[in-house]
Amino acid sequence: MNQPEHLATFIQTIHESLLDNSFVKISLGNYKGAEEQLKNIYIKRVLIKKEEKLSFTYRYKTRDIVKNFGVAEGIGLIEKALQEGFHIATLFSTQFDLIIEKINQKTVLRKNASTNPNATSLEHDKAKNRLIKPQEKPYLHELKITDEEGNVYKNAQDKYRQINHYVEILSTLIKDIPTQNLLKVADMGSGKGYLTFALYDYLTNVLKLEAEVTGVEFRPDMVQLCNRIAQNTGFEKLNFVEGTIEDYNSIGTNILIALHACDTATDDAIYKGITAEADLIVVAPCCHKQIRREIEKHKASNELDFLTKYGIFLERQAEMVTDGIRAMILEYFGYKTKVFQFISDAHTPKNVLVVGIRNPKAQQKNPEILEKLKATKAYFGIEYHHLERLFQL
Ligand SMILES: C[S@@+](CC[C@H](N)C(=O)[O-])C[C@H]1O[C@@H](n2cnc3c(N)ncnc32)[C@H](O)[C@@H]1O
Q1: Nearest CA to ligand 1 atom 20
Q2: Whose CA is nearest to atom 23 of ligand 1?
Q3: What is the rounded CA–CA span in Å between residue 300 and residue 308?
Q4: What residue ranges line ligand 1, CB within 6 angstroms?
Q5: How far is residue 82's CA from residue 61's CA, in Å, rounded to a whole number?
Q6: Which end of the chain has less Cβ packing within 10 Å, N or C?
Q7: pLDDT tens digits for 264-275?
């Protein structure tokens, strides 16, 4: 297949759909390669001995052969199959169908409405294989997610699923970072600590890692509540500190997360992560007021006024520009970035994750990125972005 950017987008979308659990299946067809009698490959996601795999069914004219591969290896094989003979592939996800097709030496990429919007991917299997089981978890009871017997309350089902979903995403991302003897994790703006507890539980009790997890939160009532629950649960290396993200000493942090830290608090968190050279930075941004105000100031004199005069578009523009610049700055400091929707927007509009994975081999401080940042600000009529200002770029 030519047009490598289409293939790269297709492959990246597979990654994202596995991460956000919207993946349903993949099919490859119109084979014109060298292998005799091969017609199609069908790929689904399976759990084998609690490990996620991609199961390939190779359909030949008269027989099927099934082979299971690790996720990374499997995705590599899909890429290879598209370069070596398959002329069409469809990624079926609950969000959309993405089709890559080679027509007359050209590669086209099409996104259609999902034909499987209600498919459960691994959801049903996962109900049995949740990473955070509800039973025998005093903290879930104290956080009012379960009753004393470990039954999830009806009104906490969404929260419980969300906690598991976060942990699943993090569990996949954690595989990409170097293993440490002691994992030091900081959760910025930890609030009531749902995720902080679940992550500590997963790292120490499921992965059996030595982990020290700190929740940073300026609300004293939350900090007291969470510390009390941590003590009652016997989570010795989970603690919550009262203070601001800005003042937190993040040195030595390997994983930094910030979920729904308001407006520029997300920038403060990213700043803390980059300056600590954290291996993994995961933020779910919340509101985007700072950039919204900047765009609003210049909207009348800006070519984009046909969009920004509508509140809803201004809001979306501010979100994309704010998070796009965050990703750009992460890349400037040598982070590989991913941005994806991690939860259906039926649950919450605050559903984008910005992820940075530190790549010590990546070029640091590429001046072209600063040029792009400058041009982007000029285009959108932005004087400054809070994260840019923190680094004095
Ligand atoms: C929307 S809540 C999210 C809580 C939690 N991360 C979650 O996703 O369930 C945001 C929390 O961040 C805290 N917060 C916001 N800005 C902060 C700052 N600059 N320093 C410390 N905490 C902050 C708020 O008090 C609030 O508890």
Answers
A1: 244
A2: 189
A3: 9
A4: 189-191, 194-195, 216-219, 222, 244-245, 259-262, 265, 268
A5: 19
A6: C
A7: 999 999 999 999
Q: Is the dihedral of CA 348, 198, 161, 219 positive or negative?
A: negative
Whether residue 279 contacts residue 272, with contact meaning beta carbons closer than 8 Å, is answered with no
Centre of ligand 1 from the C-alpha of residue 175, in Å: 27
Range scoring the smallest mean pLDDT among 51-55, 100-104, 167-171, 275-279: 51-55
Rounded Cα gap, residues 278 and 188, in angstroms: 13
193 Cα to the center of ligand 1, angstroms? 10
CB within 8 Å of 196: residues ≥ 6 apart: 187, 190, 213, 215, 226, 238, 240
The strand pairing partners of 214, in sequence order, are 186, 239
pLDDT band at 178 (very low <50, low <70, confident <90, very high): confident
Which residue's CA is the closest to the ligand 1 atom numbered 17? 189
Neighbours of 15 (CB within 10 A): 16
3-state secondary structure of 55: strand
CA distances from 390 to 295, 357, 384 (A): 19, 20, 10
Does residue 292 come out as left (phi exceeding 0), alpha (psi in the -120 to 50 range) or beta? alpha
Which domains, and CATH codes, for the chain? 4-113 (no CATH), 129-391 (3.40.50.150)
Structure-block tokens of residue 357: 């994975």
The pLDDT of residue 123: 44
Say what the pLDDT of residue 264 is: 94
How do residues 184-224 score in pLDDT, each as one tens digit? 999 999 999 999 999 999 999 988 999 999 999 999 999 99
Taking residues 70-97, report their average pLDDT.
93
pLDDT at 154: 86
